[in-house]
């Protein structure tokens, strides 16, 4: 099929990227979600394809454009995203977990539309599965895992904790409170840390460039 003039330094690798937001259904017409656009994950998916990899993208709702050479799996909830990722995982060489997965899902009201009544509303939530942690912990020899850390405080400390807790090879952290960084932006200002303890702060850059440089880093680990 279609091939690009790019270094084929990921040829023979199968890459899985999770991207975009999850949606956690509450009643028949409402859900819990976040403003993730899927831009960072789409950038990884395209970068991996340009470098010769076979790519699976597990896309939350609202995820944008992806070349048709990338195998797309559209999902809605955190549970759906986990199921899709888990069923692919044994065939994957590199997992890139960029999705903004809901940490909690509302206890469902049901399929009817909730009708307003009193002045207050209390909704209970239960924890979702941590996709990166579950698959990172189940990592086999040769499998590589890149995770993200979205933080507003103590970026460097929290990234290192996530690197260990999720058995990742690389964590890319960003301060989501900084302008030009994080949810729904075209650029990102990140810090990278790897399992060998190497760490670097990178300047603000377009997300496609960040993705490319993270893969450069992974291939040199
Ligand atoms: N992640 C995941 N599944 C979840 C939650 C998070 O796969 N249920 C992944 C994200 O895709 C990201 C990484 O874990 O690569 C870190 O997500 P983040 O929200 O920054 O951290 P959490 O571990 O969820 O902790 P907290 O939100 O409390 O900081
Ligand atoms: Ca989280």
From TrEMBL:
EC number: 4.1.1.36, 6.3.2.5
Binding site for CTP: 103, 113, 148, 162, 166
Keyword Metal-binding: yes
Domain DNA/pantothenate metabolism flavoprotein C-terminal: 10-220
Reaction catalysed by this enzyme: N-[(R)-4-phosphopantothenoyl]-L-cysteine + H(+) = (R)-4'-phosphopantetheine + CO2; (R)-4'-phosphopantothenate + L-cysteine + CTP = N-[(R)-4-phosphopantothenoyl]-L-cysteine + CMP + diphosphate + H(+)
Any one GO MF annotation of this record: phosphopantothenate--cysteine ligase activity
Keyword vocabulary terms for this entry: Decarboxylase, Flavoprotein, FMN, Ligase, Lyase, Magnesium, Metal-binding, Multifunctional enzyme
Cofactor(s) required, per the database record: Mg(2+); FMN
Highest taxon in the source lineage: Bacteria
Binding note for cofactor: Binds 1 FMN per subunit.
Pathway terms, separated by semicolons: Cofactor biosynthesis; coenzyme A biosynthesis; CoA from (R)-pantothenate: step 3/5; Cofactor biosynthesis; coenzyme A biosynthesis; CoA from (R)-pantothenate: step 2/5
A GO BP annotation: pantothenate catabolic process
UniProt-annotated stretches for the region Phosphopantothenate--cysteine ligase: 15-221
Bilayer-crossing regions: none
Keyword match Magnesium: yes
Assigned GO CC terms: phosphopantothenoylcysteine decarboxylase complex
Primary role: Catalyzes two sequential steps in the biosynthesis of coenzyme A. In the first step cysteine is conjugated to 4'-phosphopantothenate to form 4-phosphopantothenoylcysteine. In the second step the latter compound is decarboxylated to form 4'-phosphopantotheine.
Protein family according to the UniProt entry: In the C-terminal section; belongs to the PPC synthetase family.
Protein name per the record: Coenzyme A biosynthesis bifunctional protein CoaBC
Source species of the chain: Halodesulfovibrio spirochaetisodalis
Gene: coaBC
């Amino acid at each position: 099929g279609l091939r690009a003039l790019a270094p084929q330094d990921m040829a023979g690798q199968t890459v899985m990227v999770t991207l975009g937001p999850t949606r956690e259904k509450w009643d028949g017409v409402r859900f819990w979600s976040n403003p993730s656009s899927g831009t960072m994950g789409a950038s990884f998916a395209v970068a991996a394809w340009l470098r010769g990899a076979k790519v699976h993208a597990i896309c939350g709702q609202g995820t944008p454009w992806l070349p048709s050479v990338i195998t797309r799996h559209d999902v809605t909830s955190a549970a759906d995203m986990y199921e899709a990722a888990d069923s692919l995982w044994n065939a994957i060489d590199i997992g890139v977990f960029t999705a903004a997965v809901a940490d909690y899902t509302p206890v469902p009201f049901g399929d009817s539309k909730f009708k307003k009544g009193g002045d207050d509303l209390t909704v209970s939530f239960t924890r979702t599965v941590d996709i990166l942690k579950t698959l990172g912990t189940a990592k086999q020899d040769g499998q590589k895992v890149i995770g993200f850390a979205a933080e507003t405080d103590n970026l460097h400390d929290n990234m290192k904790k996530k690197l260990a807790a999720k058995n990742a090879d690389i964590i890319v952290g960003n301060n989501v409170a900084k302008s030009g960084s994080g949810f729904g932006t075209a650029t990102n200002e990140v810090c990278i840390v790897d399992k060998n303890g190497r760490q670097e702060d990178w300047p603000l850059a377009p997300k496609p460039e960040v993705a490319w440089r993270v893969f450069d880093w992974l291939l040199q680990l």
